[in-house]
Design brief:
The structure holds two protein chains of two kinds.
Chain A (H helix, E strand, L loop, with lengths): L1 H21 L2 H110 L3 H21 L3 H14 L6 H15 L2 H14 L6 H14 L3 H14 L4 H12 L4
Helix pairs in contact in A: 1-2, 3-4, 4-5, 5-6, 5-7, 6-7, 7-8, 8-9
Chain B lengths: L10 H4 L8 H5 L8 E3 L3 E2 L5 H20 L36 E9 L4 E9 L4 E10 L5 H16 L11 E7 L4 E7 L6 E2 L6 E7 L5 E7 L7 E6 L4 E4 L5 E7 L5 E6 L7 E5 L7 E2 L7 E6 L5 E6 L6 E6 L6 E2 L6 E7 L5 E7 L7 E6 L5 E3 L7 E6 L5 E6 L6 E6 L6 E2 L5 E7 L6
Parallel strand pairs in B: 1-3, 2-3
Antiparallel strand pairs in B: 3-4, 4-5, 6-7, 6-29, 7-8, 9-10, 10-11, 11-12, 13-14, 14-15, 15-16, 17-18, 18-19, 19-20, 21-22, 22-23, 23-24, 25-26, 26-27, 27-28
The chains are: A mainly alpha, B mainly beta.
């Protein structure tokens, strides 16, 4: 910057010489004024240069600060990278274990897939069987279904699963009230209650048999079992009346013979 | 209620059209698809003559037991890999999963016999998971016991792979009446016909043997040469016997309830004709539970002992009837005319086996009646008369007597009528009664 100021002074020095030895007073004054202006401009230029220098210095300082900060950050990053490298090594070990587990899982998945495939085959077979059932004529299905339901429920009764039998016979009577097995279902519902010791419910069920199917083949035994339930409840008068009614209405049934034996046991005829 | 009767198949015999349902679809509603291979067991160390003999017996018995169980699909041994299997290291699982085999489970092991003992090491592996399911070591001092070891391992496989649904019948026995001279005595044999041996030596006519529910005794009726009456005898496994008599001259067809009560048919001084009686165990009090005009015979208990099925001619011809154990609720299960005999109630309660001689026919065949609905299914046909059917304890098999090969002999088959096998050959043999499961 200083060398630039000297170059300007050198530029104007011949003018000074010519004025000193050959110019007028006005010209000298004008020249002095010009010199003053030039000096002012030089000062202003110097000031501007100084300001720019300051700005450049400031910028340089800022850059230096940034570099320093960057360096610190770089150090931190370097440390972080080194730390990360250590972690990566540990992760690699963990990954190895994970890969092993994945392989195990993969093997198990294969096995599961195999089993699923097997189950799928079985399911397809079952579906084919269901399909073949569905392809039966509708009248056949309509005829078979109540039979199967009754058969399964009766088997529950026969095997002593009386809770299942009760709900099964109730459902059967609700769904197939006109089935040829309806009177049987009503009777076995009562007998299931009787075997559970639910005597009041048994009596109600046996009454249903007598009322709904008075000529059914289960009516005599419904009378007999109702009398047994009444005896259990110590309602002996009603039990005796029921047994007598059985003997009177169904005198040729085997239950009439049992009723007579029971009346004898109770001390009445 | 009207009984709806359906005669299945055998249209040529009965003149009826085959209908939709087959017995196998009813009895085995969920077809098993477990594929099992039973590789030949191999010598453990050396193939000496004792070991070779034990191996040939063991391999045949195990394979036959598993095949008869009806629980598995068992591919032919001709498809098996040739490499002998001694230990798990010898098993190449992939070679048991090729399309011709594709088995789910593999049984293999070793047998080694010497002068003092026979050792069997037996394994069952899940081929898909390659996990061991069973690993057993049996040591026996008597080589002939090798059959029992094979039966036991077969039953263990059946139990494991049926998820406890069956304990297997390989160790069960069949008691039967056999005439091998002037007298007819009670004999017993393994279910496959081996190890037959005589149990009674009374010199009379012994008939209708029937196992108790706990498998510890059986009852039968006998008429001794010097006595003009039939009596019922309780025969304990240790040989001790007790006698039950009525004041009549005829007793037949004893049957044990689960609680030990015995039902039998008899003609007594108070019954006009043969009736069904029930007596508590070890008691001489009888209760007449049928007490009806007409001949009532051949009682069999329902599995819970609440009902009894029997044969009665009260409606004209001998048919299958059921009665509650208190004598009430008698009803007819079979109403086909002809002549029914020898009912036997299935272990699951659903069916009653019986034999039936159709009108104008000379021979019996074995039938199945569904108790709830009265549906009927025919199980035997063809030559000879087939009678006295009896369930195996798992309800998957049936024994019966047949004259299809000449004299009366004992046969066994699947409960759907397939896989027929003759299991007796000497003398005249009848009235087979399949034992319950052996004690655990």
């Amino acid at each position: 910057m200083m060398s630039k100021s000297f170059r300007l002074l050198a530029l104007f020095s011949p003018l000074w010489l010519s004025l000193a030895f050959g110019g007028t007073k006005e010209e000298i004054v004008r020249l002095q004024s010009d010199v003053l202006q030039l000096q002012n401009q030089i000062r202003m230029l110097q000031k501007t240069v100084d300001e720019k220098d300051g700005m450049i210095l400031s910028l340089l300082e800022q850059v230096n600060d940034q570099v320093a900060k960057g360096s610190l950050a770089f150090d931190d990053m370097l440390a972080a990278v080194n730390g990360a490298k250590a972690q990566t090594s540990s992760l690699e070990q963990s990954m190895g274990a994970v890969v092993d587990q994945l392989e195990l899982l993969s093997a198990k998945l294969d096995e599961t897939n195999s089993r699923v495939a097997s189950l799928h085959r079985k399911l397809e077979n079952n579906q084919m069987q269901v399909q073949s059932l569905r392809t039966l004529p509708e009248d056949v299905i309509a005829e078979v279904e109540p039979d199967r339901v009754y058969s399964a429920t009766y088997n529950d009764y026969l095997m002593g699963n009386y809770s299942l039998a009760v709900s099964g016979f109730q459902d059967f009577l609700a769904n197939y009230p006109d089935s040829e097995y309806a009177d049987n279902a009503a009777y076995y519902l009562g007998d299931s209650y009787l075997k559970q010791g639910r005597h009041e419910l048994a009596i109600q069920a046996f009454d249903q048999v007598m009322n709904l199917y008075p000529k059914g083949d289960k009516t005599p035994v419904a009378y007999y079992k109702k009398a047994l339930a009444l005896e259990e409840l110590q309602r002996l008068d009603q039990a005796i009346a029921t047994l007598r009614k059985l003997v009177k209405l169904h005198s040729k049934s085997p239950e009439a013979e049992l009723a007579k034996q029971q009346l004898e046991k109770l001390g009445v005829q | 209620m009207k009984w709806k009767l359906i005669i299945v198949s055998m249209s040529c015999l009965l003149g009826t059209e085959a209908l939709a349902q087959r017995p196998d679809a009813v009895i085995f509603p969920t077809p098993t698809q477990t594929r099992l291979a039973a590789a030949d067991f191999t010598p453990r160390t050396s193939a000496n003559p004792e070991t070779q003999e034990a191996l040939s017996v063991f391999n045949k018995v195990l394979f036959d037991d598993l095949k008869f169980s009806t629980l598995f699909v068992i591919p032919s041994k001709s498809f098996y890999p040739l490499k002998p299997l001694r230990t798990i290291q010898d098993v190449v699982f992939e070679s048991w999963q090729v399309p011709t085999l594709d088995v789910d489970f593999l049984a293999f092991g070793t047998v080694q016999a010497d002068a003092t003992a026979t050792v069997v090491e037996a394994y069952l592996y899940d081929v898909k998971t390659r996990q061991q399911v069973l690993g057993k070591r049996f040591t026996i001092s008597d080589t002939p016991l090798i059959r029992r070891v094979a039966h036991e391992f077969a039953d263990q496989i059946v139990y494991e792979l049926s998820a406890g649904g069956s304990r297997g019948v390989a160790r069960t026995q069949i008691v039967f009446a056999s005439q091998r001279g002037d007298s007819k005595e009670i004999w017993v044999m393994d279910y496959d016909g081996f190890n037959a041996r005589q149990l009674t030596f009374n010199g009379g006519i012994s008939k209708f043997p029937e196992w108790s529910a706990d498998n510890k005794r059986f009852a039968y009726t006998v008429k001794l040469p010097t006595v003009n009456r039939w009596v019922l005898r309780n025969h304990e496994i240790d040989g001790a016997e007790s006698t039950i008599r009525t004041d009549g001259t005829y007793m037949s067809s004893p049957a044990f309830a689960p609680d030990g009560r015995i039902a039998f048919s008899a003609r007594t001084s108070t019954s006009r004709d043969s009736d069904i009686f029930v007596t508590p165990p070890s008691a001489s009090r009888f209760r007449n539970i049928t007490n009806h005009r007409g001949v009532d015979t051949a009682p069999t208990w329902s599995p819970t002992g609440t009902q009894i099925a029997f044969i009665s001619d009260r409606s004209g011809s001998p048919q299958v009837w059921v009665i509650d154990a208190d004598g009430s609720n008698v009803r007819r299960i079979v109403n086909e005319g002809g002549h029914c005999d020898s009912p036997d109630w299935s272990p699951d309660g659903r069916f009653i086996l019986y034999s039936w001689q159709a009108p104008k026919q000379w021979k019996h065949d074995v039938y199945l009646a569904e108790v709830a609905t009265g549906r009927l299914y025919q199980l035997t046909s063809g030559r000879g008369s087939n009678e006295s059917p009896h369930w195996s304890p798992d309800g998957r098999h049936i024994s019966f007597q047949s004259t299809r090969t000449g004299k009366k002999q004992i046969f066994i088959m699947n409960a759907d009528g397939k896989n027929l096998k003759q299991v007796s050959a000497y003398g005249i043999n009848e009235s087979p009664s399949w034992s319950k499961y052996p004690p655990e």
